[in-house]
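B., you asked whether I could sanity-check this one before it goes into the benchmark set. Here's the sequence:
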Amino acid sequence: MNPLFHILFQQNRYLVKQLNDTLKQHGLFSSQWTVLFLLHQKGQMTLTEIWKYLDVEAPTVTRTVTRLETLGWVERVQGTDKREKMIDLTAKAMEQFPQIEASVVSFERKMTENLSEEEQALLIQLLKKMEG
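And here's what the prediction gave me:
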């Protein structure tokens, strides 16, 4: 195995675990935060739009959204097409979003404190080159 992939996978697991620890105080996991953040940025979306945007399997997104709905973070609302349900943030999510985002920003700062702005830009550039 190419050692590059080993370190990338290990670092990804580490970052997800640390983010989950950060989000625990808000009753969320990283996968749930990803959906909340997306809806906050883009507004209402269908399940299909969410899984296509995130490039995640449809059943995974459906389970995550259903759990977020149960927890009161998102709701399904009628779209312009009566057959289509849109996923939207609830009032609870909108109210609590700034505190959650502040926790995530603090986490991100901590994770990148040993990297200069130039190193961060270079890392982004290098990772994008792998997209093909």
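One thing to flag: The helical segments are 3-23, 30-42, 47-54, 58-70, 91-112, 117-129. Otherwise nothing jumped out at me.
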